[in-house]
Each structure stands twice: as C-alpha cells, then as structure tokens.
Design brief:
heterodimer; A: 227 residues; alpha+beta; 7-stranded antiparallel sheet; 25% strand; B: 61 residues; mainly alpha; 3 helices; 8% strand
C-alpha cells in the first residue's frame, strides 16, 4: 500500500469487501441491498451498508446494523484513510439510531472518535440542564470520547459488542473472524502511530535492545493528536 | 456475499442527488442542517441527513 504501487480504488474495494465479509461471517442476517455500491467522485469514496440483526437464527429481524464509511488517500497520498465512519445499531426499519460509534477525522469541536447513545436519562438531563447545556433533553447529543484516531474502536469491536453485550445472533466461528479483523486494524493503526511519533517508536525499540539507524525525514506531517 | 461495485459520479450528478434527497423530506439544506444541529431530526430526515453528509463529502464540502 505504499509508493508507486498504491492504487486507491483497489484499496477501497478491498477494504469494503473485507468489512462486508466480516459482518456477514459474524452476524446472522441479510444485506438489505443486492449489492454494495461504493460511490466515487474526485478521489473520494463513500458507501453505506445495512444488514438485518436477529435475536436468534430463526427469528425475524429485530434491528439493523448500518456501517457508513467515507474514504480517501491520507496526507501522504500513499495510504488509504478513513475520513469518517459510523457504526450504528438501528431499530428494525433502519431509520432510528439506538447506538452510534462514530469517527470524524477532521473533527474540531467534538472528540474525533466518540459514541452516541440514543436513550433517555432523567438524571443526566437534569445535570445537563443545570450546566445550561443547549440540548439537555437529547442525551444522543453527547459525544462520549473513545480514544482518538489511533485507539478508536474498529468495526470488529462493534460486532463483538452486538454479540456479547446485546446478545445479537452470531454465526459459528465469529470469534476468530473478529480477532483476525481486529489484529489487521491494530497493525495498520500501530504503523500509523509510528509514523505519527517515530521518536517514541525508536526509543522503545532501543529500550528493547535494538539499534535503529538512519535519519528521520526533515519534513513530515505532524502527529495526529486529536481528542 | 453481495458484489462490491464502484460507481463514478460527477459533481453535477451529486448535486442532483442532493436536491432529490432534500425533496423527499421537503426541506432546504439549511433547514435540515439546523434540525440536525439541534438533534431534532425525524427518522426519515435522519436517513436523508446521512445521505446528505455522504454527498457533501464526495463533493469535497
């Protein structure tokens, strides 16, 4: 995925296929569309995928999983970057969200990686009203931070959350799929974290007894340090 | 597994789709944005808002 061999559209296709295969392999359910259509314009790509969720393999749909991704090349032009993503648990019609895990790469006023919970809490609303919060009655307006760019939840974490926390019906072997996908995500994010802070990576490698030679590029993008 | 396809769309086509999405809920972009910022979207408006955000990204806005 580096240098002259970088083909953004191929990367996007592979990424979307991976995501699709992962959720279909892990969760009982059917896609709501016959194909997964990635819409592209000027080097930007976006897709939205919905799949039914079930209480057990023979039950009717009780909810919808919706995954939205906006993708492009990163600042170096050599890697696929997620500009935004949203993993949503929705009610069975697929319109009203229940839980949303979102990532907004260029977020300024909210945590770039966050969770929205569409629920009611009298105590929370009372607290927010006391602080004169502009949307005290809408608990869903609160962005609960989840660790920034590099340590945010991946889609496999959301799939595991649906299965283990919400008891959504799963398929045999889902654990291995989730582990494999999560490992792939974390390898990518670890590499990106090293590019963000190579000095830290070098110091840690040296602490492990290794010798790192060579000079760091004099100009490189600043580390991503968003909330 | 459903096939994965890539559809290349022009800016004009995206703007046409934006207009059509807004027409489905009878709101202007400003009105929809205002409702979204105040967390007052109906379920149908939520679906359109998600589509609007996708189109705006593709338009580079």
């Amino acid at each position: 995925m580096t240098g002259a061999s970088f083909d953004l559209e191929s990367e996007v296709r592979e990424f979307a296929t991976d995501v699709l295969a992962r959720v279909l392999t892990c969760l009982v359910g059917e896609p709501r569309e016959d194909d997964l259509r990635i819409v592209s314009s000027e080097g930007r790509y976006a897709f939205s995928y919905q799949q039914t969720l079930h209480a057990h393999s023979a039950s009717e749909a009780i909810g919808i999983l919706q995954l939205d991704y906006a993708l492009c090349a990163d600042r170096t032009g050599r890697h696929l970057a997620v500009q935004s993503s949203a993993f949503q648990l929705k009610e069975r019609r697929g319109k009203k969200p229940i839980v949303r895990v979102e990532y907004l790469r260029d977020a300024r006023s909210v945590p770039c990686s966050h969770v929205h919970v569409h629920a009611e809490s009298g105590l929370f609303t009372e607290l927010l009203a006391a602080t004169r919060h502009p949307s005290a009655a809408a608990i869903a307006s609160i962005h609960v931070p989840t660790g920034g760019d590099r340590f945010r939840p991946c889609v496999e974490d959301f799939v595991q959350f649906l299965i283990e926390e919400c008891h959504i019906a799963s398929r045999e072997g889902w654990q291995d799929e989730v582990l494999e996908g999560r490992e792939k995500f974390r390898v990518i994010q670890t590499a990106a974290a090293v590019r963000d802070r190579p000095e830290v990576a070098i110091a840690e490698l040296e602490r492990l007894g290794l010798t790192v030679t060579g000079d760091l590029p004099s100009t490189r993008p600043s580390a991503r340090d968003r909330y | 597994m459903p096939p994965v396809t890539v559809e290349h769309v022009s800016g004009d086509e995206l703007r046409t789709r934006l207009e059509a999405a807004l027409n489905r809920v009878g709101l202007s972009l400003e009105e929809l944005t205002d409702l979204a910022s105040r967390y007052r979207l109906t379920p149908d408006e939520t679906v359109v808002w998600e589509e609007v955000k996708r189109i705006q990204f593709l338009l580079g806005e």
